Amino acid sequence: MKKVIKNIFKMFLLLLAVGIIFIAWANYSIRKESSAFVSYRIADVPETKTALLLGTGKTLSNGMPNAYFYNRIQAAIDLYKSGKIKYIIVSGDNSTKDYNEPEDMQLTLMKYGIPKDKIVMDHAGFRTLDSVVRAKEIFGQNKLVIISQKFHNERAVFLARENGMEAFGFNAADVNKYAGLKTNLREYLAKAKVYWDLLFGVQPKFGGEKIEIK
């Protein structure tokens, strides 16, 4: 019995080591592959018809404003007012009646002067994969600028390019590294899951009729 337990423990340690190595490799690979296509500088962003603003909650669980949300909104405003983009797809989670990321983004953008008819709503952006693939399959965009924080843009741009899109990332300002510790730790696993999704051809949760962005 002791020998069996010892062998099981060894197997567990081996699998743990393999898992850690894979996560490290996935993060390095995605950062490397996307590095040439993400930037904090508007000057580096090509003129593109449409930007994809990735959603997050407007407030934190404690009711405080979410810096990730407002920094992304500011980046979208700056990019739109620079003339580099004409439309903004706001894509996020609307899984419950009282939680609507796309609507929160739309209303906040309008508050800062972005015309309503230049904002396109995607209520089915439950995951980054969904938001990116739907931008192509539902909204017909083969070229776009993705707006989020750098760590998120690396993954989103990588996913978009793996799905045949000419994608670039405009990085919103980061948040305090301590405030964003949980999010950054979760991102390590999310980058590893990208390869799982690609390997098994995971598709967005919802499809729908095509929507033309004129």
- The count of helical stretches stands at 6
Number of strands: 6
Radius of gyration (CA) equals: 19 Å
Order of helices and strands: HEEHEHEHEHEH
Biggest sheet statistics: 6 strands, parallel
User: What characteristic shape results from the CA principal axes?
Assistant: globular
Protein name: YdcF family protein
Pfam family, one: DUF218
Topology:
Elements: H1 2-34, E1 38-39, E2 50-54, H2 67-81, E3 87-91, H3 101-111, E4 119-122, H4 128-137, E5 143-149, H5 150-162, E6 166-172, H6 181-199
Parallel strand pairs: 1-6, 2-3, 2-5, 3-4, 5-6
Helix pairs in contact: 1-5, 1-6, 4-5, 5-6
Organism: Chryseobacterium herbae
Protein name: YdcF family protein
Pfam families: DUF218
Structural features, described:
With 214 residues, the chain is α/β, with parallel strands linked by helices. It has 6 helices and 6 strands, in the order H-E-E-H-E-H-E-H-E-H-E-H. It has helices at residues 2-34, 67-81, 101-111, 128-137, 150-162, 181-199; strands at residues 38-39, 50-54, 87-91, 119-122, 143-149, 166-172. A 6-stranded parallel beta sheet has the order 1-6-5-2-3-4, with helices on both faces. Helix 2 (67-81) links the parallel strand 2 (50-54) and strand 3 (87-91). Helix 4 (128-137) packs across helix 5 (150-162) and helix 5 packs parallel to helix 6 (181-199). 36% of the residues are buried. The mean pLDDT is 91.
